[in-house]
Amino acid sequence: MNDEMGQKKLIVGTVSLVCAIIFFGGVAKDLWGGIFDFSQLAGKFPEWLKTSGGSGARGGFLFALTLAPSVMLALAFVAVFEHYGALSAASRWLTPILKPIIGIPGICSISMIASFQSTDAGSSTTKMLRTDGKISYKEMLIFAAFQFSGGAMITNFLASFAPLLSLSDNEGHSGVTSIALCLGIIFVFKIFGANLMRLYVKKFVKDDEVEV
């Protein structure tokens, strides 16, 4: 009986995990007006709040103020996915993949997917994992290094750098690379940065050390 209940929870959790990946991964951003996509629901920084040139203390404060709704939205949806067992399923299926590659458990996968679109969603959900005791201090340091390098890589790259690939020179030659290759390089170096932190943590951070 217990095995049957455990199997049902795993199935429901796996479905919830897939839904979380779709929601935070931007897969459904063009489906039904983006109602199943985190970045679409979170919205963008309003143009009328931007100061001249995009700088200044007031502009920075107002920008930071607009981050609160996206953080709240991310935490709310992670709580829903967790209720249906997504984090447990992620730990079951993805730990054998993430642990050898960058030294973090599979339970970090939802936060990882979220960080590809939003630095705020990634950092807030990671903090939640640490606060709830689901990841250790060492794992948090490694995961933070992974997120810090090329944060929100999909959103930032597609919005800021991808258009450059379509530009051409005076002779009509355009970029010879692709968006997928660029994102792949960024992802590889995110893994590289995480493993540098992994080496540092292994050598200099004690097992009983905790954040101050």
TrEMBL record:
Q: Which organism is it from?
A: Lonepinella koalarum
| Protein name, as recorded | Nucleoside recognition protein
Keywords annotated in UniProt: Membrane, Transmembrane, Transmembrane helix
Kindly give the InterPro entries that the UniProt entry links to this protein.
Answer: Gate_dom
Which lineage?
Bacteria, Pseudomonadati, Pseudomonadota, Gammaproteobacteria, Pasteurellales
The record lists the membrane-crossing segments as 12-38, 59-81, 101-119, 140-162, 174-193
The Nucleoside transporter/FeoB GTPase Gate domain is annotated at 65-160
